[in-house]
Specification:
The complex is a heterodimer of chains A (about 290) and B (about 325).
Chain A: E1 11-14, H1 19-30, E2 35-39, E3 47-48, E4 51-54, H2 57-64, E5 68-71, H3 78-87, E6 92-95, H4 102-112, E7 118-120, E8 126-129, E9 133-136, E10 145-152, H5 156-167, E11 172-177, H6 188-197, E12 203-209, H7 214-225, E13 230-235, H8 259-268, E14 272-273, H9 280-288
Parallel strand pairs in A: 1-2, 1-5, 2-4, 5-6, 6-7, 10-11, 10-12, 12-13, 13-14
Antiparallel strand pairs in A: 3-4, 8-9, 8-11
Helix pairs in contact in A: 3-4, 6-7, 7-8
Chain B: H1 5-14, E1 22-25, H2 28-38, E2 42-46, E3 59-62, H3 65-75, E4 79-80, E5 90-91, E6 95-99, E7 103-114, E8 121-127, H4 134-140, E9 145-149, H5 158-167, H6 172-191, E10 194-205, E11 210-212, E12 216-219, H7 228-231, H8 241-248, E13 252-255, E14 260-264, H9 267-279, E15 286-289, H10 296-308, E16 314-318, H11 326-335
Parallel strand pairs in B: 14-16
Antiparallel strand pairs in B: 1-6, 2-3, 2-6, 4-5, 7-8, 7-10, 8-9, 10-11, 10-12, 13-15
Helix pairs in contact in B: 2-3, 5-6, 10-11
Classes of the chains: A alpha/beta (about 290), B alpha+beta (about 325).
């Protein structure tokens, strides 16, 4: 078992004929993912290495049984692509696109409410379930099948942590990059809930960063609802206030959202916080061996 | 992206939000002319992006055109240091000259995107504690801040204006006027992709008028592609020269005070690398994310930016190849 992405997932790639879409569709296939269709309006009837391409998401659902989507379209078209997948009844929508205006995501989130569909991202590296497949662009070689769930707001820092775990012989159930934007489809809490319920996950590693209050909300959840051990790291301990550190969501504003506050909230909630990111792997090992 | 107070007030005027009579000037002579046109006591305000201008000596009053010119000579060209500019301060190029008002009450109005899970939408805030830093009000007396969430799918509804206006203790004779201003602020927020709008103070005069005495608008960088009129308001003099050069080459760079330069791919990893330098007893000279699609040329330029910072004594390169190809980084470093 795993969360979100499993043996039943049939993936459609929206924006499959673009440079990133085609490259990462092929990478996903090489990783073993069931990519059953692609969508690019105007390119319907063609194919990518035998993967049929349609004009509309609904065609991919009706003809190929697609139930999960990976979105690689430019920022100005991405909200529309998410809404199209939602309307077509896709239950897992993963949007990699960076640079979507925050107010567009506010509207998309209102549309998602009550539909039962799950959006991951935008501005995220995607989801990987080793042994099953991936949606997104985490490198193929770093993963190993196992029982640690990984959740993160960043991209490359997530690879670093997954790679660190794999090198120590520790596999992952599923790794989820929730994205670095102020408004994202799924929060830490949404994913923690899934890992807590997943029998194949025995520990969760969570990587937060400065800005917003997603870490504080995660602390509340871990404290009250979580029985599994959690190891955490927060990036941006040296970040100055008022500056956006790459991610639109990573900004300390009005003295709120500092790494120090978040680390304290996590410690108070019983999360095993490491100060040095290089210690995440060792911490996980020491808890698993207890 | 940030803009100046006078630019924000021009947007207010477009939307019918009342502001004091006044104009922007870049010479003392212009200040004198504007003051004589206004024909009464004026306030002269330095136009820089940082807050805390009053305490730093960047906001002064004058009773006559002659006095206004004299005050303007002191402010224009001064190096204004506030708690937000850092010790080096900011040079003042322009001032806003406005009529002084007979203020009865100083209030606060603001809009931000509330990121908490139960909101995830703009939230409009009002407080009777105007003129103070809102963060201070929030931590010392949070009951003084009234909030109302604004679902953009539903759009603005006038009860929201009433909730805030009555909450501020306003007389019923001015509630609808206040509500209209709040609605216009919300429209600016939505139509211009703002991330923050503040009127602090929002004043009630003894004559019963409501005006925006100050104005602050920050915009979502990700929304700028659809607002050319906002992009034009960018003032490059307010930004760090190396940061401008970096943004032109597609590199995400923020200058810091340390001496260890870093070049990293990915924002999270870049922050974690800075943290590692600090933990090892050093101090990072910058945040630098080369981005996912970096070419050898971009890496070379990023390297030039790092080496042109005189404080940099050593450079740490931390690249985790995923989308980014490590061979491109290597050749960029060698060429740089």
């Amino acid at each position: 078992m795993s969360i979100l992405l499993n043996e039943q997932s049939r993936i459609v790639i929206q924006g499959i004929t673009g440079g990133e879409g085609s490259f990462h569709a092929r990478e996903a296939v090489a990783f073993g993912s069931k990519v059953v269709a692609g969508v690019t309006p105007g390119k319907g009837g063609t194919d990518l290495d035998g993967i049929p391409i349609y004009n509309r998401v609904i065609d991919a659902v009706e003809k190929e049984g697609a139930n999960a989507s990976g979105i690689y379209v430019p920022a100005s078209f991405a909200p529309d692509a998410i809404l199209e997948a939602l309307e077509a009844g896709i239950k897992l929508i993963v949007c990699m696109t960076e640079g979507i205006p925050a107010l567009e995501m506010v509207k998309v989130k209102k549309a998602l409410k009550g539909t039962g569909s799950c959006l991951i991202g935008p501005n995220c590296p995607g989801i990987t379930t080793p042994g099953v497949g991936k949606i997104g662009f985490m490198p193929n070689f770093i993963h190993k099948k196992g029982n640690v769930g990984v959740i993160s707001r960043s991209g490359t820092l997530t690879y670093e942590v997954i790679n660190m775990l794999t090198n120590l012989g520790i596999g992952q159930s599923t790794s989820v990059g929730i994205g670095g934007d102020p408004i994202v489809g799924s929060s830490f809490v949404d994913i923690l809930e899934l890992f807590e319920a997943d029998p194949e996950t025995s520990l969760v590693a969570i990587i937060g960063e400065i800005g917003g209050n997603a870490e504080e909300e995660a602390a509340e959840f871990v404290k009250n609802k979580m029985s599994k051990p959690v190891v955490g790291f927060i990036a941006g301990q040296t970040a100055p206030p008022g500056k956006r550190m790459g991610h639109a969501g990573a900004i300390i504003s009005g003295g709120k959202g500092t790494a120090a506050e978040k680390m304290k909230a996590w410690e108070d909630a019983g999360i095993n916080v490491v100060v040095n990111p290089a210690d995440i792997g060792k911490k996980v090992v020491s808890i698993l061996n207890k | 992206m940030k803009i100046h107070e006078y630019q924000a007030k021009r947007i207010f005027v477009e939307y019918g939000i009342p502001i004091p009579d006044g104009d922007v000037a870049s010479t003392p002579e212009e200040v004198r002319e504007i003051t004589s046109r206004i024909g009464k006591k004026v306030v002269i305000k330095a136009q820089i992006h940082a807050g805390g201008r009053g305490k730093g000596g960047g906001v002064k009053t004058a009773n006559s055109p002659q006095e206004a010119e004299k005050v303007a000579r002191e402010i224009i060209g001064m190096n204004l240091i506030t708690h937000q500019t850092g010790p080096e301060g900011k040079r003042v190029k322009r001032v806003l000259v406005e009529e002084a008002l007979d203020v009865e009450k100083e209030l606060y109005l603001g809009i931000v995107i509330d990121r908490s899970r139960d909101q995830e939408q703009p939230v409009i805030m009002a407080s009777e504690a105007g003129g103070m830093e809102i963060e201070e009000v929030a931590s010392k007396s949070p009951e003084k801040i009234i909030k109302v969430g604004a679902n953009p799918v539903v759009s603005f509804s006038s009860f929201q204006g009433r909730k805030l206006a009555y909450g501020l203790g306003m007389d019923k004779s001015i509630v609808s006027k206040a509500s209209k201003i709040i609605e216009m602020l919300y429209r600016i927020f939505m139509e211009k992709d703002a991330t923050l709008i503040e009127i602090n103070p929002f004043v009630l005069t003894r004559g019963g008028d409501l005006l925006a005495l100050d104005a602050k608008i920050n915009f979502d960088d990700d929304g700028l592609y659809r607002h050319p009129e906002i992009r034009e308001l960018r003032d490059l003099d307010e930004e760090e020269p190396l940061e401008i050069e970096a943004s032109n080459t597609g590199v995400n760079y923020i200058k810091l005070d340390g001496n260890v330069g870093c070049m990293v791919n990915g924002a999270g990893l870049a922050m974690a690398t800075m943290d590692l330098i600090k933990l090892a007893g050093g101090a990072p000279a910058n945040f630098l994310d080369v981005g996912g699609g970096a070419t050898a040329e971009r890496i070379e330029k990023a390297f030039r930016i790092l080496t042109s910072d005189k404080n940099v004594k050593a450079i740490l390169v931390n690249i985790f190849g995923g989308i980014l190809r490590c061979d491109r980084v290597a050749s960029g470093v060698i060429e740089g």
